[in-house]
Every structure is written in structure tokens, then in C-alpha cells.
Amino acid sequence: MLILQNLVLTCYLYTYPLLNPFLPNVKVNYTDHFTHRPCIGVAPSEIIYVVYNVDIGWGIPESTHIYLNKSFDCGSSFVYPDRMIIEGNKYNECLTLKVDKNESLHLVYEHYPNLSSKDKLYYASSTDSGQSFPLRTRVDDNSFPVGIGLADIAVDDSGYIYVVWNDKRAYYSHIYFSRSTDSGLTFSENVRVDTGVIHDEGYQPSITLDDEGTIYLVWVQENSFDDVHFCKSTDMGNSFTEKVEVDPFSFRVGHPDISVIGNDTILVTYVGTSSANNLLYISRSIDGGTTFTNTVRVNDSIYSFCRRPSICVTQDRKLHIIWEMIFDPLQEMNEDIYYDFSTDGGLTFNTDIMVNDHTEDSVRQQPTLDKDTDGNIYVAWNDWRNGPGDIYFASTMVSGVAERKKGIDTLSISSPCKFFKSSSNPSYREITVKYQVLYPSYIKLEILDLTGRIIRTLVDGKKQVGYYNAEWKGDDSLGKSTSSGVYFVRLSSCDFTSVKKIIFVR
Q1: Separation CA 121–CA 494 (nearest Å)
Q2: What is the rounded distance in angstroms from the CA atom of residue 382 to the CA atom of residue 388?
Q3: What's 481's DSSP letter?
Q4: How far is CA 62 from CA 54, 65, 72, 113, 496, in A?
């Protein structure tokens, strides 16, 4: 184990507001296999968890497993190596993840023994920060496996677990609901929510809760045109209200997601297909879901193709949305992840902001979103910048750091390390890193620029137990002086990595 005990930055260290609030993208996975469909969850301690699927074999995979990685430093780095948490004899795919107030992880995934067979829906949980998932319970109550679509999960303050999904047990796809009141040991009898004509299929469900425990559901109901439908339950899912149509359009809609502001405003985002474009919309209800009005377009350009939006609301009642967007639907290899926000409950939105910092033509898709208690936003997505299939991450600036400071200050975060920054040293042109090694380990200490390029390697080798210092005087690997600006200090061993942002001033 490696502990970074003290980092003395003998320069000015500060951050400042940027037009784009997102920090540089960070790669999450270390496995070389194809990764996809990430799900992100942020614990109250600000540990960030990302789970994702890993295909073994290209093309038609030989098997698919679920991996997890986590960050202790607000997403500056992710632990090496990432770990397989659910291994099946054939195929397991994660569908959704939630982290509750007690820092337990709740995962819903589908399992199928081969590509031609039908699926089963399972729930798994971890109470040891994702080290193990010993509890695995089947959620769907079919006597034989059926085709499972998408699923979503919510957990209330009492620990009750609510799961919604679509499956084809009746040949047609419909929306089903189940709950667990015993921490996932058992799940209740499945209830079909999208009541109506049997051949009007339902799919793409989403679920959320308000502070009083009311359950809100949305999904796509297929009829002559696909519509977004809504219902709710005030008795823990024992009964649901009649479904209400959310969107006002006569064209196809899809990919709905739902969130609430307090207990009075319900927000539903979705994409609508008009002509050759898929535009991003949001509708809201201020009467408990009886009616939905104030439908507005979120994305700036009307010449775009939007997909897979995700929405959340922070404690300051600010609404955040991410989605994937293509400006030319014929150019599938040119997808980007975009972000926007609203401070007035979804009536107006800011200018769209690109989340990914790699702007060359590439596939970037399947974005997932979560927040912390300080109002910071965390995003993960599938990214092909290095070739098919990696998981990348970005977050907004960490609260409490986006402020210019001078003098001695301590920045503590939920991490195995702590950084200390100081300008009291008489030398303003060097950085001293002090670290402790608790058992013989291979240590690497590097300075990186904004693009992630290694400027200088300060330490690269095995270290015995003890205390060590390393200094950087602003030079590169050839001994040439670097310019003032933003850099990163990365310290890593075989089982630990930490990265911190600095601004070096000569």
C-alpha cells in the first residue's frame, strides 16, 4: 500500500472558472477487452463507482462479464486494476447501478447462458465498497426465461429497493415492477404497469423517488406513434395511478428519463423524431403528474440527432442533462457527449457544452450521470478514441477548490492520500513531493501536461519501506524549462494511483 503523505507545491495553486466546467477526461478501465454500457454511482463519501460490461472476444463475444472500478480522489484517477465483480459461464450485462445513503451498492443485471437463449433479471448488492457482491437475487418471476430489455432501480431512505424493466413474457414487451423490503433477499410478485392493449408494447422504463418516497415511472408506449407515458405510486408500489401521456407530439419519441425537484415539480426528458432529426425535449408537471406542460427543446441545434439523455437534480434545485449527439446521422463515427443545465426548473437552458475533450471523429455513446451532495456532476460514457471500446469519465470542478488561494491550506478528500499545498517556501519554482512506502513497492511519479503527455518522470522503480522526497523544478525529460501553466502530478504503484491538478508559475 502506498500513502502520499505530503505534497508541498512551492508555487501558486489555484483554479478559475472556465466556460466549460468539466475537468480533463480520465480513462476508467484498464482491461484491453471491449467495454460498453457504463453505469455510474457516487457515494456520500464521494467515492465514485463505475460498473461496465467487458466482452471477451471480438465480433460475437465468447462471454460478457461485469467489471467495476472506483475513484477515491473525485475522479482524478481510478484504481488499478479494474476488477471483475460478476463472472458468468457466459453472458452477464449490467443495466443500472445505485449507491444509497449508507454507501451500499445496488446493481441490476441480466444473465443469459448463450446468445440464442432468453434472459433472467438479477439483483446484486455490495456493502464493502464494491469488493464483493455476495447477494444475488432473481427479480423477474417468470417460470421460464424471457427477453429482458432495459431496467432501472431506485432505493429509498428505508432501504426498500424498487426495480422497473421491460420483458416479453407475454410475447409483446411490457413494463414490469417489483420491490424488495428485506434488503434484496426476496422480490415481490411482478406487476405489469403499462396496462392497456396487449400489442401496444412498452419499453425504455425509468424510475425515481421524491423525498416522501413517492415512486415515479416513465416509459415509451408503442402505438401508432411512440409516446412517453407516466404513472406514480404513493404506497410503495402496491398500486399505481392511471398512465398519463407526457409528450405533446404526433411523431415518435424515445429514451425518456425522469427526475423531481423537491416534491412539487416532475421533469421528464426524451428525444423526439421530427423529419430527419432527433431533438432533445423536456416536459414538466407542477400538479403531481396529472398534466405535463411547458415542453421545451433542450439542445441548441435543430440539425442534430440526439440519443440517450440522462437527467438529475442537485440540492440547489439545478437541473442537469447529458446526452449523446450526432450532427450528421449518416456519420455514426462522429458522436459526442453534451451537457446542459437549467436553473429555473427546466423552463430555459444554457448553451450546450461538449463533455468529451477528444474532438476528432470517434464514437462516444451510452452516457451515464450522477451527482454528489455539493452539486458536482459526474459523467461516464463509452469512448472509441483509442479504438473500439473504453470507458471515459469527466466531472465538473470540485466544490471548495474553484477559488484562488494563497498561503498554507489543506485539501482533504475521501482518498488514501492527502495533498497539502503551500507557498511559504522561499523558492517559487519547484515542487516537492513527500511520500511514504509501507511495504516494498514499485513506484512511479510523473508530471503530465494538459493533454496527458508525460513531461517528466521523477521516480520509476522499486522502493523499500520508508519516507521519500522528489522534486520537480519545471523541466522536461530533456532538461529544458517548461512554461508556466496547468500540469498534473501522478503518483502510482501496482494497486494505487492518484492524480492532482496544479498551476505552475515561474
Answers
A1: 35
A2: 9
A3: B
A4: 11, 10, 33, 11, 31
Dig out the grid coordinates for 40 from the structure.
455510474
Instruction: Evaluate if pTM is beyond 0.85.
Output: no
Q: Which residues contact 113 (CB under 8 A, 6 or more apart)?
A: 88, 89, 90, 91
Half-sphere exposure of 367 (CA within 13 A, CB side): 32
> Which helix (H) or strand (E) segment is 64 a member of?
strand 63-71
Peptide bond between residue 205 and the one before it cis (omega within 30 degrees of 0): no
What is the phi/psi pair of residue 381, to 5°? -160, 165
CB of 231 closer than 8 Å to CB of 242: yes
Strand partners for 232: 216
pLDDT tens digits, 229-259: 999 999 999 999 999 999 988 888 999 999 9
Query: Phi-psi category of 122—alpha, beta or left, where left has phi over 0 and alpha has psi -120 to 50?
Result: beta
Furthest CA-CA distance within the chain: 77
- For residues 23 and 13, give the distance between their C-alpha atoms in angstroms, rounded to a whole number: 16
Please tell me the distance from the alpha carbon of residue 207 to that of residue 177, in angstroms, as a whole number: 10
* Rounded Cα–Cα distance for residues 443 and 454 (Å): 16
**What cell does 436 get?**
511514504
Is the CB of residue 284 less than 8 Å from the CB of residue 307?
Answer: no
Is residue 150 within 8 Å of 93, Cβ to Cβ? no
pLDDT in tens, 76-106: 889 888 999 987 667 888 889 999 999 999 9
Percent of the chain with pLDDT strictly greater than 90: 50
Q: If you compute the radius of gyration of the chain from its CA atoms, what whole number of angstroms results? A: 24
In sequence order, the 6+-apart residues with CB closer than 8 A to the CB of 291 are 244, 285
What would the pLDDT profile of 389-414 be if each residue is shown by its tens digit? Answer: 899 999 986 443 332 222 222 222 22
**Domains of the chain, each with CATH number or no CATH:** 409-504 (2.60.40.4070)
Cα(354)–Cα(322) distance, integer angstroms: 9
Q: Which three cell numbers stand for residue 87?
A: 463472472
Residue 88, helix vs strand vs coil: coil
